[in-house]
Amino acid sequence: MKPWDLNDLYQGFNETYEADLTKFDHLIEDYIKHVRSDAKDPITYIETYLKIEEDIVKISRTLGSFAMLTMATDVTNQVAPGYMAKLQKIGRKATAEDVLFTRYLVDKDLDALAKKSELINKYLYQLKKSQEDAKYLLSESEEVLYAKLRELASASWGQLQSITTANLPVAYRGKEITLSEVRNLANDGDASVRKDAYEAELKAYLQIEDQVAMALSNIKREVVIMNELRGYTHVLEKTLNQSNMTKETLDAMIESMKDFRPHFERYLQVKAKYLGHDNHLPFYDLFAPVGKLDKTYTHEEAESLVLEAFYGYSKRLGDFAKKAFENAWIDVYPKKGKRGGAFCSNQPQIKQSRIMTNFTGSLSDVLTLAHELGHGYHGEVISDNAPLHWSYPMPLAETASIFCENIVLNHLLSQIKDPKERLSILENSLQGDTQVIIDILSRFIFETNLFAKATGPVTKNQMKEMMIEAQKEAYLSGLDHNQLHPFMWLNKGHYYSAGLNFYNFPYAFGLLFGLGLYAQYEKNPRSFLKSYDDLLSLTTKTSVEACAKSMGIDVTKKDFWYDSLEQIKKDIDEVCDLMALGK
């Protein structure tokens, strides 16, 4: 299968790309002139600002995405980083004007203005958020200085982690493979392969732990310093503001997750016995397959399975996936120099998406494909929104992806009669749930503790110790405390962004919110379809709590989270019963 096709964005860093780069520069100049112009009429002033912003969003998303997607599948590319730097430099020119406009909004009665302007009313939620964010701004000159220095500081440290891990050679059984390849062996059916791969992975990290630990330490120290200067009480306060989410909602979800830890602990202990361990599961067997579903999938088989399941839900979802497959929107297989993991990059300005996976044929890979296509479907829905309504907050970002995983999983289970095959599929799903609830909890705990220490340098040994303690707290006695994973901070790119912290709890939100929505779908499929697409459209326009309320859900109370976690507990009970019957 060929790599993804980026030609609908650009056919290279050619004359067209250069022309659009110039156009982007001119738009930024127009923006600067407007913000510094006479603002006697607030309606005209704000409307003109919004129209220029719409044009900037459309062209900058296209330019930036092409460069980012090029680098994602070839971290050795020498041209794309240069263009990313140019884009950042052009965008940075308007930093002072961003501050000026945000401060301009402080004393404006936006509700009154919205009654007189359709455009202002359309973007009222975003304008009010900007009005609130004004209190966290530094002076114009300070904001400009930080924007310039950030590229040489946290942005560069983040690139170091990406390049270093993408190019890390791993010595495994006498040959050299990539980090993505060795991590994929965690799903292998051979216990000795899983153990050898785990040990090879940990050993490989010793080559890069010093530089990557320094990168992470410096990124988090930068965040702490800047947040103190801005007046945030805690890093989490800024993340919640960015997430359009209240602490009340986060607390209700995190506490519910903690309350259900004993159920996951029981599952892991039963799996340990099933695999021949004494009560506690070694980390390298977290993803060990159970049951007798030995099948691996070709990508063509995965496509057929996903299409069948998606069309069973709705024609619109099936048509979207078919379009993605037929038009080469997906870069499928691992290779040297390609980033690990998987992601979806929505391109609403051209009504498309691009999806990167590292497909090796496991059932997990099939579900990952469904997951990323879910992101793409979310992008399909919001492409009908106005340009400043093309971005959704982190917690709601996982709603459609988790939902689509459930569609494929339940489709698979509906076809399985053999108990051992059912065990294999259910337990594979439970592996994912355990990652999204328990491992995410460990990441949340780790990052919380990391920020507490990031008032000064944090060493690699401190990071490893904190990760081990976080895993113990999250997994309880489910995992063997002598065989954990001290380097989980090193291989997760989500830690390495100064502007996006705590990108862990949104996955738990997405899973549990998606489970709650799927339960609604099962009760009344016909009425659900329209309201669900309306919900996806709404995710870019209002708060997490308001989105949930549109579906009759109160996410500030533990009741909703308990109901969703109870659905996972049912799977835990069934999986434990099936494993207790033996191999």
Secondary structure blueprint with pairings:
Blueprint: H1 15-35, H2 42-72, H3 80-92, H4 95-104, H5 110-116, H6 118-122, H7 124-133, H8 140-152, H9 154-166, E1 170-172, E2 175-177, H10 179-184, H11 191-205, H12 209-230, H13 235-242, H14 247-259, H15 261-274, H16 299-313, H17 315-326, E3 330-331, E4 343-347, E5 352-356, H18 363-382, H19 394-397, H20 399-414, H21 419-453, H22 460-475, H23 505-523, H24 525-538, H25 544-549, H26 558-580
Parallel strand pairs: 3-5
Antiparallel strand pairs: 1-2, 4-5
Helix pairs in contact: 1-2, 2-3, 3-8, 4-8, 9-12, 14-26, 15-26, 16-17, 16-20, 17-18, 18-20, 20-23, 21-22, 21-23, 21-26, 23-24, 23-26
What is the typical, i.e. mean, pLDDT? 95
Amount of helix: 55-70%
The main sheet comes to: 3 strands, mixed
Structural class: mainly alpha
Describe the protein.
This protein is mainly alpha-helical and 583 residues long. Helices cover 65% and strands 3% of the residues. It folds into two domains: 15-137, Butyryl-CoA Dehydrogenase, subunit A, domain 3 (Up-down Bundle), CATH 1.20.140; 153-583, Neurolysin, domain 3 (Orthogonal Bundle). It has helices spanning 15-35, 42-72, 80-92, 95-104, 110-116, 118-122, 124-133, 140-152, 154-166, 179-184, 191-205, 209-230, 235-242, 247-259, 261-274, 299-313, 315-326, 363-382, 394-397, 399-414, 419-453, 460-475, 505-523, 525-538, 544-549, 558-580; strands spanning 170-172, 175-177, 330-331, 343-347, 352-356. Strands 3-5-4 form a three-stranded mixed sheet, with helices on both faces. It starts with 14 loop residues before the first helix and ends with a helix.
